[in-house]
Structure formats: structure tokens, C-alpha cells
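User: Round two. Same drill as before: sequence, then structure, for each protein.

Assistant: Same drill it is. First protein:
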Amino acid sequence: MADETLDPPPDAAPSTPPPPATPAALLRPRREAFEHGLLPIPKLIFPEGTLTQTLAQLKEKLAAAAGPGGRVGAAALAEALQIPQEQAALALGTLAAVLPAEDPALGDGTRDAAGVDIRDVLLFLYIQSYKRLVPRSAHKDSPAVADVWPSTSAFDGYLSALSPIQLVRSNSRRFMPSQADEEIHQLSYLQKHMANIVTLLADSVEGEGDDSLVLTMESFEHLGFLVQFSEGTSLSQAATFFANSDPDMPAAPVPAAQVLDWMSQNIASSLEYSAERSAAKESNQQTVSDIDVTMAEANTSHSRNSTPSSNPAYYRNVTFVEGFSKTSVVKHASDVKGNSIKVLNCHDSVIYILAPLKYATVYGCSDATVVLGAVGKVVKVEHCERVHIIAAAKRICIANCRECIFYLGVNHQPLVLGDNHKLQVAPFNTCYPQLPDHLMQVGVDPSVNKWDQPFVLGVIDPHDSLSHPAGVSDVKAESASCLDPDLFTNFLIPSWFGDERQEPTSCNPFPLPEIYGAFQIKKRSALEDIQKTIRELQLDENRKREFATALHAQFKDWLYGYDRINDKIHDFPVSPKSSLCCELGT
């Protein structure tokens, strides 16, 4: 009876209007390009008034320097933009990480790669003019939070507005842009600039007016760097002027004006639908197909054997872990929907993401440990405080964090930018049985680890108006220091499925640097000496029990008095009592 639905009387008026119908094909912005593809390098960002003209001139320069297939390498890009080659290589590597499909010729965008398609480079440079959406209400610092997020920098008035502690204590999370807000903002940006973007990709032909610019099907497909259809249909298949083209016969180019009209209509339809959804939300019209994933929905699958929610909001291939406090959360591969995860506003918790992914974001967390198993593209950690990040990934970007430690297995230099304080980096320090397979799946090479080679950019992020105050000159961000080897410890991941416990020192796929390995051997030797002394104690059963009880009590006093309780609890895969009793033979 409880599951039955009671129909309202025929004369009863509906309390609220029905939600808008979802269009058959909905054009969405590719969030990866906007979330992981922006770099705060001033010479990559052109003034909006001269953006189109500057990129048109750059297109000519790059075309003249391009190699076979119209590809551009780091040296050519550095020359054209007048930037150091290291920054050009970083730009191409970042571009490679956010392309919609793997490019075998490009690889990871390193200096030795074959180069990047000019059209992708131009689109990448164009969106560097994008400004992120700011909070709906400006945050006001209060004395209650000043002691935990002190202003120690000239930029703190701008950059510290998103302190994780402030988010918790002031309940200002509700003022932060939602996923839907950001998507609308990105679509609006594309709507405004689509005419220039299409022109940039177009080729000139003989003709007058609109007929002088055309787009080939190949160039049209490059717009997939910026937009995609929600159900996965390719742009050329969705567009009537290229749909069902014979793969053996090259499709005829179409006028750029026709492409612009089609793109503009689809973007307008998506914006109209999103606006209707937002209006419905403001009228408390939450439905099962809401394009935002609420905290309640994100919390529906905590158990290790649960499956992801069937909520259609997940069609964007993003899983959310949001708003957890004083708990542990485990996500295995079967719990993760899609190829991207976001850990948002979690505090005093341990988050285990033991799955192969392409993208991962950790945002606004404090006093937490986050384990990211294998990330094949980019990890981004932003606005975190006193957090331990354990990550195996191709790349990682660290921005606006304080007193955090990063235990890394990364194939590229960690990118450090923004207003950071007291960051430390250390080698990767954990393992779980599926990790080697997950690394192989996403293409992370454990034989290459650049954890101790941070690439440091500026404090000010031009894409964020909160951190880009007028008249303030940029300075180099504070880098990260290497963790003292004597403080380095392994992190043991508990076994939930009865798998045999693996010691991180022996199964860690990333080889430890010699000095860290030596300290691990020293610690292990000391532990073995203590264990030997305990085993050799000549005590009767009563004295053994008294000794065990006293040892347990001292251990608990130490454990609960330590300010990293969560980390230490999870260093023990079995209870302290059972392990000590085994040593004592009780």
C-alpha cells in the first residue's frame, strides 16, 4: 500500500507545473575544457577586444611553422607566443589532457610529441579568455574564522574567500555556483563567442560575403573540443549538413554561416531548457531528472556493493562525493559512474576513490585524507586546508591550498599556482590489489614519478575575478617543499572484501626514492626490535593481560590526542588490540 500512488481528484488543480520536457538532443559544454584546460599564463590570454584579430594572426604564424598534417610543437608555439618553451610544453600538455579523444600522434603533449592540430591550439587559446562564474553572494570574512584562515598575504582578501572552514561555519555553500549554474555560464560564453570561433576554424574560398568562408567536416568536428551532445552523438552526425556522409567520400564543405546558425540554434535551445529547469528549481520543483546532483542523491550509495544512482543527472559522466563530515567513504570501480569524480566540501573524513578515472577534482575540503587510485588525465586540488592527498595520476594541479601534504605518483611535474601556504610533497605511499591494473587502464606509468619537481606559476588567476583585483601585480606562487623522510609513513588501505592485506612498501607500484626507502627500513627494524622484546618477555598470563591493557590504554591516549586521528586510525588494517594480543600470545 505504501508504494501505491493516489491520483488527485479530477477537479483538483496541480500544485505546480510539470517540469519541461527534455529535448531529444541537448547540446552541452565540455566541462573538462573549462575546468582543467585554463592556465594562468598572461601571454596565453588576449584582451577580448583584440582576441579574434590576434588569434587570426597567430593562425597564420602557426600555419607557416606547422609540420606535416598542420601540427604545432612546443618550439613553434613558444616562438609564436614569445613564451619560454617550458610554458609552451605545459600548454600543449594541458591541451592534450582535455581533448575529447586520445590523439596517438600527440601522446601527452611532451616536447618529443608530434605536435597538436592547429585548430585545437586555436580553440584552446580562445577559451583562455573565459572568466569563471563567481559566487552568487560575496563572502564576508568574520572574526569567527580569522583564526583558522589567517590573512598572511596581500592577496588574501581576494584568494581566501573560499576557505573550506568559512564554507562550513558560514553555510555559504548555498551561494556557490551549482553545476547547472556553471553549465549555463559556459554555454552563454560560447553563445557570445561562437561567431568568432567558427570564423577562426573556417577556410577562405572564392566568393563574396558569407560564401567566402567554409568549414570542412573535419574542422567542424573540432568544435567537439568545446561542446557535446548529452547522449554522445557526434557533431557531424547530429548536423543535417554532414549527417550520414559517405566515409569513403569526403563531405563537401559548408558555408560557415550555416554552421553558425545551427550551433546558435542548439545553444539557444539548451539555454532555454536550462533556464526553465532553474526556474522550476526556484519554485521547489526538484524532480528525479534534475541536472544538479544534490547531496542527498550523492549519499544514496555509501555501501561498497551499491550501484550508482539511476538519476539521469549522471549522464555527464560525473560522480559526486559531497558534504561528508567525520566519516569514511569508499568508492570502488562499481560505485563510480562515468570517468570523472568530484570530492567537494568534505571535512574530518577519509575518502577512498579506488577506481580508474580520467579526471578528479578535490575542492573545499579540510582535515581530511583523500586517496585517488588511478587518474589518467588530471587531478585538480583547490581551496583545501590541512588535507592529505594520495594520488596516482598523469598530472596534478594544486591551487590555493594550505598546510596540505601530497603523496604523489605523477608522470608530469605537479602544477602549483595561486595563493598556497606550507605545502609539502612526498612520494606515493599506498597500494591496493587492483591498483596496478587501474594504472594500466588509464595509462599512468609507475616507472616515471616527478613528484618532487613542482612547476610553479603565478598567484593571480586571470580566469577568476575574485583573485584578479585591478592594479595588483602578480608574483610567483609559493612552491611546495619535500616532506622530511623521517616523517614519511605508508598509508594502509583497509581490506573490505577479505583480500589479503598488502604492505605498501613491497607492493607500491611507484619505486621509493633511496632516502625514503632507507628511513622505511630503519623504522621497520625498530618495530621488529620492539616486537622481539615483547615476545621475549617472561610473563605469566595475568601479567601479560595487565601489560596488554596498559599498552592499549597508552596507545589510545596517544591516538585520540593526535591531531590527525583519521589518518592514524586507517594506518591499522586490524584493531590495535588484536595485533598486540597476537604479539603477546594472548
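Second protein:
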Amino acid sequence: MCGILAVLGCSDDSQAKRVRHRGPDWSGLYQHGDCFLAHQRLAIIDPASGDQPLYNEDKSIVVTVNGEIYNHEELRSRLPNHKFRTGSDCDVIAHLYEEYGENFVDMLDGMFSFVLLDTRDNSFIVARDAIGITSLYIGWSLDGSVWISSELKGLNDDCEHFESFPPGHLYSSKEGALKRWYNPTWFSETIPSGPYDPLVLRRAFEAAVIKRLMTDVPFGVLLSGGLDSSLVASITARHLAGTKAAKQWGAQLHSFCVGLEGSPDLKAGKEVADYLGTVHHEFHFTVQDGIDAIEDVIYHIETYDVTTIRASTPMFLMSRKIKSLGVKMVISGEGSDEIFGGYLYFHKAPNKEEFHRETCRKIKALHMYDCLRANKSTSAWGLEARVPFLDKDFINVAMDIDPEFKMIKKDQGRIEKWVLRKAFDDEEKPYLPKHILYRQKEQFSDGVGYSWIDGLKAHAELHVTDKMMLNAERIFPHNTPYTKEAYYYRMIFERFFPQNSARNTVPGGPSVACSTATAVAWDAEWSKNLDPSGRAILEVHQQAYDKQGAPVTSGIPEIIDNVPQMKASTVGLAIHS
């Protein structure tokens, strides 16, 4: 991931340093009149010559880009009359604009946010990838300038109003408005009736992973031992040999996992790593390590959403360790649960129509949750995360399947994400051990260790009083926090980002086990235990809370007693070969 800041119609570019952490390899700046384009580069493709901004032949078109264009070689072949200055995958954007005008964005296969300035008429366009894998914000200042930034902190102090730039959209200065460029069939939430072909689904996902092996720097995979990350690791390990990356950096895959000592993810991750033969790096953290990082996490992730902060903290700690090993890119498993209905609350979907509509709602909201977490947790340390489940072609294949096949039916042996598990259940050449392939879904914030969430709740109890909660609706009328943990995060967020526009960029509403507010109505009991943890799904999760909302395996009172005595410690590192 890189960092971009564009100020169009102003005399100031000084805020670029606020996103410098995203791109430690190079700082680029371009000025044309009162337009500034600044770029902080994390060099993944063509590190030697791909510095930004990028230009067309006569430098009349200027582009600053955050992301990766996986089909750049094919796009170059469509532009035989154009001369490219670098080997960067993003170099095609200026030339595509010359050839096709504003209508080229759907030709890009990748994750991206970019600002393109046409100096011939001082017009500009801004675009964000289909799902919102890369982060992007747009703001307007009182002096009439338009600001674009990869993060809130690049513009929040300078704009009168700002908001999240919507995924799959393009902003044109000529029209002064946003328009959607990404219009897949599933977006309308029409119920599909396509057949389920396990081999078609398997090949589509393998293709999505393989195209993300495009890199000129050391990389690895995030491996929690859950289904999604394990499939990513398995496919990567199978296809790494013979790639350009393998020739440069070796054919043995590196894998990374984080968790509290003895956590479910650490155990499962090591087992999968041993099965695949990866060089496995296991990072340990304590509850206190995580608590000590909360303020930094909220500053970098730019949210007060409870489940996002819970999951971002271990990922934030792990990313720092990964970067210290010289790795600059990782492949991760985000997006599968949204596409296939993998969250445990999908067990209660009343019918296939509601099941499908909920998956559509979840995919549309990914940019506010898991994409935001994966992008900013890693970018905080100059690390890039790639997510093959959110490949455009793969989503089209997966979302065209009749949702009847995705429905969870225990009497037929169909657990969550059954269609994906079945697609990779190969007896002749197994991708994974059977019990891993059919391991129950663990949300990342649960899988790193159940005491992590319990410890966060206990810590919030020490800092938020009952009296404070009585006034929560008056202090925070928008997205009012109804738990002490949520109130604690909100106080920290407001200190960093006090503007009304900032708090409006964060989603709200009731949720159980990461559901949308609409799906909460699927079970009357859920409204009594609105917790985003998967353990809130009683009678489904194997380590569920009891009906009073307490975890069945550990109690919060004991944790509260221990919190004052916890000592801050260095995150442990164990490397397994």
C-alpha cells in the first residue's frame, strides 16, 4: 500500500507527511498551478524506477496511485502506440486515460485508489476499486479546494466537510459529481439461480491467488489456520515455484500467525504450516500488549467500531513484526465470509433469499470493516495486504451460485461455507487436512485467543463508569455507544478526530457476530446479546457465551482482578522452520 494526498485548487501540500507511514520508500510531489499531487511510495513492483507521480509521454497527464494493477501487462499490450516510462503496474493508467477518457476504470483488474490530473484543461478524476480494498477519503475546504487522501488524518484538519470515497465510484471534476463505474449483477441483490460447480469455483479462486503472486519484493501469507487463510496458503505454496517471485526470493513460502499463548489460531496455524512445509513465523502477544496499543490502533485504523478495533489490534502488532523481517507484502483471506455467508449468524438465515441479500449487504460494507482493517493495520508499518477472495472475477463466479447451495443445513452435513470447503475437498491431492478444511469459523478477534476480548471488556470497565454510560446518548448522539468497551474506543477516536464528518465515516447500528442490523431480526434472542463476537451465537459456536452474555470458559471478574497487575511486555517471537 502507498499513501496519496491530492489538493486541487489550493496553495498547500503540507499534510502529505501525515500518511508517510504508508510509503516509506519514496516521497513524490507534483505541482501544477494550485493543484498538488503528493505520493508516499511502498515499492512492490519495479522498485528501481516506479516512483510517483507517473506521467504520459508529454507529462500532460499526471497520476498518483495507491494499489496494484494485476493485469497491467495485458493492458500494455492494448496500447502499442504508447511509450511507458517505468515498469510499474500503475504506469498504464495515464495512457489508458489518453486512449479511452474517463471510461477505462472497469478495465483495471486490481486494488487501487488514484487521482489523475489532466493539465491540458486542469480537470481531474478520482477513482476507487470495486470493493474498497484500498482506503480513500474526499473533502472540501472553505476556500473551494477539493482534497483527496488515503487516510482521514491527511485532510480532517483542513476540510469543512469530508467523507469516505465510495468504492466502485469515480469522481469527475468536469461533472462535479460521483458516478458508479462498478455495476455487477449481484449489486442489485437479485437472487441468482446459477448452478454450483465445485471445479469452476476452485479454478476461479486459484486464478485469483495466482495473479496476486506478482511482486518484486519478499512476501508471505497470513495463516491463522482457519479455512480462508489456509486455502490461500495452500494455493500459494502449490503455485509459487516457477514464478518470478520464486526466482528472486526462493520457492519456500513464508507464513505468519499471531495470537495469545495457547490460542486456537496459533495451534491451527502451525499445523497447516507444517502440512504445507512453509517457513512459519509465530508471533505471541499478551492482553496487556494489545491494550497498550489500542490508542495507536485507533489513530491508524480511524474507526471506533468495536469488532474492527478488536481484530485490528493483533493484526497491527503482527504487521510490525512482519515488516521487521524484511517482508513488504502479504496475502490474506478477507472477504470469504461475506461472499459465502461464513459468519455463524448465517446458521439462522430464514431462507435463501435473505441469505443472499445479507451476503450482498456484507460485501457492500466491507470497505468500512475488514478491508479497512486489513489495509490500515498493515499500512501503518509500510506493509501491503492483498485479498484474493475480493477478486472481481471470483466474486462474479461465487455470487452467481444459487444461494440454496450456500445455506447451512446441519442435517445434510453442510456447515458454513460448505460450497467453498467442498470445492477444495480433493482426495487425490489434498489441499488441507480434513479437520482444517472443515474447521468451524473463528472470527479473527476470537481466534487469536478468547481472553483477548474478555480482557478488552475488563479494561473498559476500569475506565468507563456507570455514571458515564448514563449520559452516553447526550455525549454521543450519533452512533451512541451502548457498552463500556464501545464508549472507551469512542473517547479515544474523538480525541484524534473530533470533527462531525469524522464520526460520520464510521458505521453504526445493532450487530450480533458481525451481522448487519437487518439480520439481527433473524433471531429474537439476539437483540438481548448484541456483541460482535462469534461467541454471541448461542448453541452454534463451540465456545459460546452463556445467555447472560458471559463467556462459558472464563469470567470477566477474574480478569478485572488481574488487569492492574499485568505488566507490559515485549511481543514474543517464535520462528518455526
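The longest strand covers residues 61-69.

User: Perfect.
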